[in-house]
Amino acid sequence: MFIHLLVSSPLFLLFTVCGIGCFIGKLPIFGVRLGIAGVLFTGLAVSSLDSRLILPEMIYTIGLVLFVYTTGIGCGPIFFEALRRTGMRDNALVLLGLTAAAGITVVLRPFLGLSSTFSSGMFAGSLTNTPALASILEQLHLRGLTGEALQSVLAEPVVAYSLTYPLGVVGMITVLVLGKRLDSRSGSSEQSVKVAESEIMDRTIQILNGVVPAETFGALREREGWHLLPGRLNHAGHESLASQDSVLCTGDLISLIGSKDEVERACQKLGAYATQDLWLDHSAHDFRRVFVSNPKLAGKRVRDLGVAQLHGAVVTRVRRGDTDLLAEPGLRLRLGDRVRVVAPREALSAVTRFFGDSYKDISEVEITTFSLGIALGLLVGMISLPLPGGHAFSLGFAGGPLLVGLLLGTLSRTGPLCWTLPYSANLSIRQLGLVLFLAGVGTKSGFAFASTLQRGTGWPILVGGMLITSFTGVFVLLLGLKVFKVPYATLAGVLAGIQTQPAVLAFAKEQTRDDRTDIGYSAVYPFATLAKLIVAQLLLG
């Protein structure tokens, strides 16, 4: 009776799979949570009960497009910024690692007796990359098969993906444990500032010595290489908001905002911590935290806001998601950011209106630019490039929207068109898209998955996936530590980025407690995703 109900109502089937799958994903299994991937395995389990329990193809296609586009929009600015620093080195590591993974997949194929559909799905699963699996399925759709023949061939990469996915998560976590032991620098002074130590603080310093008369704070900041912002300045008993042009004199009190280490460096140069904190005095100036909901400010740098000229205010911090950022002049604002502004008390209301501060507005999506961006991504994905052997390559539903999302997220706006999404809305749409895709793919292949396990033919795929994950992880780990000399904190993020796996990133962050782990992950995630969906198609042949 219940099976008939699921068969007769795809919508009921969809939300049943999603609800149970997300619940299972929260349960610890041998100390590891599957997260959203629990939806995939629930879809496989439910659809194994009856071959008719299949969700419409449009569901997982829409889910995939939503997921990859919002990922691109969110990661674009970080990705291209990282490329200008250490991103080229980190992405070179990713390229070498994926080349090694593809090589071992090709070598294992004849030994394990696997077809190209199984081996390409094994590659995608061992590196836990859903868009790569989607690109394989899309290419198979273009081969002219229909009916049962198409369903049979589509099931093969999904079965291989599902078998190897859990080992892909556990295998890379094991590599991270090994890496922590191999890293001779993990406890040394070369380790970067830990998260707990890099929290932004506001301390008042009294100028006692070491300051050249009539030298501005901006000149000192540039000369000393400080990553600090000035807050308030008390000169001869008169308090004002400090700026880069503020001249520091002996006896002045100045509040500085930055990490603990940076503030201490400045204190050693300027004098000593004052016995009073300027930020506690709210008589003339006060601070307020406001949401950036004004679409005109999306993508603007802090230095271009003009709040000092308009309202005599300064922006000192930006909270993005769960992370506090120093409001340095070059930082670009995003919709949904929560900024901390210091201003004269009478100007606070005007400053609030300037930024918008509407929780309702940052919960909404500008449908026009959102739809146009996705449409442009789909057009790019349709571009087909011929390959030897009569086959063709395209970025497809996964790569096209991801690439366009990266570019539009970096541009932020084009004239009156704002391409970015509020942070919370982006995360919600991204999660919804991934859940829809995994539910659709899981139900499409559950019956074939169960048949494979019953026949006992899945062991070669499991062995192959384990070898791909472990070889790739160890290869990148040793190459990064011994050849590229990448700090382990960054390398842990790169390893998680190669897997494009949030569960691995969470473990890496818990292991390192270092900000560079997030940076390493963000720097390679988009490239790893694009590279894997290209390699997966090439492996399909």
Describe the structure in your own words.
By secondary structure, the protein is α+β, with helices and mostly antiparallel strands. It has two domains: 58-145 and 161-189 and 368-439 and 451-540, no CATH class; 195-358, Regulator of K+ conductance, C-terminal domain (Alpha-Beta Plaits), CATH 3.30.70.1450. Helices cover 59% and strands 12% of the residues. The chain is built from 18 helices and 15 strands. The chain has helices spanning 2-8, 10-25, 37-47, 57-112, 116-126, 130-141, 147-182, 217-224, 260-270, 307-311, 348-355, 367-382, 396-411, 423-455, 459-483, 488-499, 502-512, 515-540; strands at 28-29, 32-33, 201-207, 229-235, 238-241, 253-258, 271-273, 285-291, 314-320, 323-326, 338-344, 384-386, 392-394, 413-414, 417-418. The strands form five sheets. A five-stranded antiparallel β-sheet has the order 5-4-6-3-7, with helices on one face. Strand 12 and strand 13 (392-394) form a beta hairpin. Helix 6 crosses helix 13 (396-411) and helix 13 (396-411) runs antiparallel to helix 18. It is elongated.
In short:
With 541 residues, this protein is α+β, with helices and mostly antiparallel strands.
